[in-house]
Amino acid sequence: MNQSMGIVLYNGEFQNSDAVGIDPTDRGFLLGDGVFDTMLAVDGVPVFAEDHGLRLMRHAKILGIPCPLDCTLFTSMATTLLQKNGYTHGRYAIRTTLTRGPGPRGLKIPDMPPLHPTLLMHAAPALIPQGHVNLIVAQSVRRNEGSPLSQVKTLNYADNILALHEALAAGANDAVILNNRGQVCCAASSNIFAVLDGQWATPPLTDGVLDGIMRAKTIAEKKVLEISLYKDDLIRASALYLTNSLTGLRPARLIAVSDSQ
Amino acid sequence: MNQSMGIVLYNGEFQNSDAVGIDPTDRGFLLGDGVFDTMLAVDGVPVFAEDHGLRLMRHAKILGIPCPLDCTLFTSMATTLLQKNGYTHGRYAIRTTLTRGPGPRGLKIPDMPPLHPTLLMHAAPALIPQGHVNLIVAQSVRRNEGSPLSQVKTLNYADNILALHEALAAGANDAVILNNRGQVCCAASSNIFAVLDGQWATPPLTDGVLDGIMRAKTIAEKKVLEISLYKDDLIRASALYLTNSLTGLRPARLIAVSDSQ
User: Fold this and answer.
1) Taking CB atoms and an 8 Å cutoff, what residues of chain B touch A5?
2) What are the residue ranges of helices labelled H in chain B?
3) Best CA proximity match to B105, nearest among A23, A79, A28, A5
4) Residues on chain B touching A145 (C-beta within 8 angstroms)
5) ipTM of the complex
6) Is residue A87 within 8 Å of residue A44, measured between CB atoms?
């Protein structure tokens, strides 16, 4: 089954994705040893490109992966990618994947010879979100507040895939994921905000929350309080919102709440 | 930099790894959406092949990934792989990687059209371990006892990479990873056993412990008690051991213990 990505940027060259093959020794493939970014583009222009570029570099640094792009190059490559695909009108998602690159067997980060990180940038149409997001609270999985990588957009998304799968199977659109202390973290690919007694609130990153670009924008814009939230806060909130870079700020509501959490 | 894997089994065909390119839309690469197994082979014969094959299928099922191998085929493919590489004398590691395969953008598990899982099996020399493993207790990261995937050999190894990196930077060989409750789970790629008052003990899987093949073998052989362990138990233990499939049962010792955990 071919899921063509159209023209992609792969290790410095624009080429058709059908011609791209990831090295089977790539540590991104074998161990999830990498980070990524998903950014909206509207009418050929990447949105908040500098924020996305800076975060990609920040997250790569936490894993000790050298980033072959600076912010200027990141933005210009994204813009060129859109042009080469004819994606200059409408909404598109640009995903940038950066891995530690090929390596020998084992977990140990290779030091000699120096690694060549793998960089893949591709674009795909992004839908305009409609209406409320119906949420459940995930029963299947908790978020790992004890890992600094819970704040980082690494390639390790299996937990989030499980949570989303649970939500869709329950007839919802997304799942709120709690940490091991029972505190609210985020949804499968969004940050979460609650309005409590007129005050906007969102959990601090240290509760195990991904450092979202739209999260930071919303905190600044709405004067949001960063405070630990619990399931009961979501129930009593006058409004809930999810944010991510593709859908912006989107209203949400809990459609089912279990007492077992 | 080319890290050749020699002859590999890739989606049903034996071929040189240089000719293999992983589809850039592979969910294993983009999202860590897959599982793997590492098995020892000695003198051309895979060790505990049935256990490894069954675990791979069990773990794939937890993620809902169809496994294109049964145990018999898994073992015969592994044996053929060794022969094709001329790895019929000495110790080798056979790694089998199974991902959900290529998919469209996003976390949602695609249902239409049906996915084609990606299967890669490759072999590499395995060293004979020497002497004690010097351990620290990881400060950088905790294990996620609240995810069922903490028991599953998924491709999500970034936390373990961080823990091992911390250990090596501290002059140790490996790191004991605690869960968010402060209980001992495992090392970066091994299970852990402690001998306490003459009784062998290891943490239960539900504490966030990977379901290791050698762990199960050792529990059966040594009449091991499955009980939650804490850092203090490791300090007072008369002996510590690590197990994994490549190194078997290996003595270990704590070389540094912080009071901050």
Assistant:
1) 24-25
2) 27-31, 49-62, 71-85, 158-169, 213-222, 231-236
3) A5
4) 142, 180
5) 0.96
6) yes
> Is the pLDDT reported for residue B252 higher than 90?
yes
Mean pLDDT of chain A: 95
pLDDT for the residue numbered A259: 52
Residue A105 confidence class, pLDDT cut points 50, 70, 90: confident
Which of 76-95 (B) contact A at CB < 8 A?
93, 95
pLDDT tens readout for residues A12-28: 999 999 999 999 999 99
Closest residue on chain A to B162 (Cα)? A63
Residues 222-261 of A with CB under 8 A from B: none
Mutate to test the interface with A, among B2, B13, B180, B207 (most CBs of A within 10 A): B180
Asked if B173 and B251 touch (Cβ cutoff 8 Å), the reply is no
Asked if B93's CB is within 8 angstroms of A105's CB, the reply is yes
Q: What is the CA radius of gyration of chain A?
A: 19
Strand A7-10's sheet: what is its strand order?
A: A13-16, A7-10, A118-125, A91-99, A34-42, A45-46
A104, A146, A180: residue with CB nearest B3 = A104
Answer whether B24 sits within 8 Å of A32, measured CB to CB.
no
Residue A110: pLDDT band with limits 50, 70, 90:
confident
Report pLDDT for A61.
Answer: 96
The residues in B 170-209 lying below 8 A from A, measured between CB atoms, are 178-181, 188-189
> What pLDDT is recorded for position B253?
97
User: Mean pLDDT throughout A143-152?
Assistant: 98
**Over pLDDT 90: what percentage of chain A?**
89
